[in-house]
Specification:
Length: 341
């Protein structure tokens, strides 16, 4: 895809997962526009594109829309920009640290525990619409008391978050290094690790200071502060960020080109063989961990061991939706949904 393809981030303010992507864009010097979304469903801007996926952020590069922040970062690493990709600036062992830290942050209960520590200190804990929306996302059903679950498990969550911070304090940051992978500037290791702690530390009243503080963990707090300042400085070098309406984004993407490099359905893939999937088939795509009730429908155009790509069929304009293979599933839809006439 041409390097001048429009880049649009769909997010809402203070979304912790979005902060990973926005920090990356700033530190790589990649300019972008944004389409601000409601914190809870519905999101009509995405419905215009035929996308039912309910998690934030999403990233459009031309007519291709990428789901899930790890995949978004992987795609941005392949993008031409003023600054070289982070992977080209570190050694293989440092890349290993990045991957392990990403897994530690995303594939464990760390983020959920941070939510349990933070949420009861905010007005959202009493916002019925927000709580109902998040209960829907985690699949708890109408009888799940999300607020009660968060509040009753908060004490254990405080201990778990404290232990995670202590881990960084007494290992990677113990030798006084500025950045986790011992790089001269922030790297993916920092981006992959700092976002959830930055969200916690920057939320007024959220940090239980008798257990977690700059006095107890000076290296971690200094690292988070250092990263935040580096991002703010980098943002100043970007062009002005335009905030686009859903209609503007739809019009923009309708005129943009698509990236066809992922248009491969691997015939020997176990899922392709077991489900008899084929290119052009009408399928539905959804995440398998949370938000799984919201399935995006389209034509299958790519399926490999790393990526699933479908072309939406239900919006005002068709876009190509890319999702990582891990954590997402795709299958054929019934005849009643496959009628695209």
């Amino acid at each position: 895809m041409a390097s001048n393809a429009p880049i649009v981030v769909f997010h809402y303010p203070r979304s912790p997962f979005s902060s990973r992507v926005l920090s990356y864009l700033a530190l790589r010097g990649i300019s972008y526009d944004q389409c601000i979304q409601p914190q809870i469903l519905p999101r009509p801007d995405l419905a215009r594109l035929g996308i039912r996926y309910r998690r934030i952020p999403l990233l459009a590069i031309g007519r291709d829309v990428y789901l899930d922040s790890p995949m978004i970062l992987q795609r941005l690493e392949r993008l031409e920009a003023e600054k070289p990709p982070f992977a080209s600036q570190v050694t293989p062992s440092q890349r290993g640290v990045e991957r392990l830290l990403a897994s530690y942050t995303l594939d464990t209960n760390l983020f959920l525990n941070i939510v349990k520590v933070l949420l009861p200190t905010t007005p959202l804990i009493s916002n019925e619409a927000f709580l109902k929306d998040r209960a829907d996302m985690v699949g708890g059903g109408p009888n799940l008391n999300f607020a009660e679950l968060i509040q009753t498990t908060r004490p254990d969550a405080i201990v778990a978050v404290k232990n995670a911070i202590e881990f960084l304090e007494t290992t990677l940051l113990a030798d006084g290094r500025q950045w986790l992978a011992k790089t001269e500037t922030p790297s993916l290791a920092d981006i992959e690790s700092v976002w959830s702690l930055s969200w916690l530390f920057s939320t007024p009243g959220a940090v239980p200071e008798e257990h977690i503080s700059a006095q107890l963990f000076p290296n971690v707090f200094a690292w988070v502060d250092r990263f935040q300042k580096a991002v703010i400085a980098a943002e100043k070098s970007l062009r002005t960020i335009n905030t686009l309406s859903g209609a503007q984004v739809t019009d923009l993407l309708s005129k943009a080109a698509s990236d066809h490099t992922a248009d491969v359905v691997e015939e020997k893939d176990p899922l392709v063989q077991a489900s008899r999937l084929y290119k052009g088939q009408v399928v539905q795509l959804w995440p398998t961990d949370n938000g799984s009730r919201h399935k995006t429908i389209g034509k299958l155009v790519g399926l490999t061991s790393k990526e699933i790509t479908i072309e939406t069929t239900e919006g005002e304009v068709s876009v190509r939706v890319h999702a990582p293979r891990e954590g997402f599933h795709v299958n054929a839809v019934g005849p009643e949904k496959a009628n695209l006439s």
